[in-house]
Design brief:
5 strands; Dynein regulation protein LC7; Roadblock/LAMTOR2_dom; 135 residues; Beta-Lactamase; Mycobact_SerProt_Inhib_Rv3364c
């Protein structure tokens, strides 16, 4: 069961405050629904969550081209003018996304994201919307 979003936002505070230049943090389900957020208004968080779902799907399709493993997406990092975007698997059908301004310590962001997922990953799992549709 997905905890109510207001109950989840607080878990993102540690990541946000421990890494300078973090702008937005979003936890989302694999179908692009926002579960929790930090630093973004709801409309921005919803747009980012939807974009993340598409990126996760694309990364998984690329991962299927490797002969070993199951092709599941673990981490995507995109560097753009002005900053970085990180998308990490954070539980069963759940993902953690971070947008950070230029100047961020890229290694520290990844490290802190992994720590957060390790601590609370089981709470970030997102059940399927229609359990009968999943066999």
């Amino acid at each position: 069961m997905i905890p109510h979003r207001n109950n989840m936002d607080w878990i993102l505070n540690d990541l946000a405050h421990s890494v300078p230049y973090v702008r937005h943090i979003i936890v989302l389900s694999s179908d692009g629904l926002r579960i929790a957020q930090y630093g973004a208004d709801p409309d921005t968080a919803d747009r980012l969550a939807a974009a993340c779902a598409g990126l996760q799907s694309l990364a998984s399709a690329v991962g299927q081209q490797f002969p070993h493993g199951n092709g599941s997406m673990r981490l995507v990092v995109i560097e753009v003018d002005g900053g970085y975007f990180y998308l990490m698997s954070a539980g069963d059908r759940a993902y953690l996304a971070v947008l950070a301004d230029e100047g961020v310590d890229a290694g520290l962001v990844s490290h802190q994201m992994r720590d957060l997922v390790a601590r609370i990953g089981e709470h970030l799992s997102a059940p399927p919307r229609n359990p009968e549709a999943v066999a």
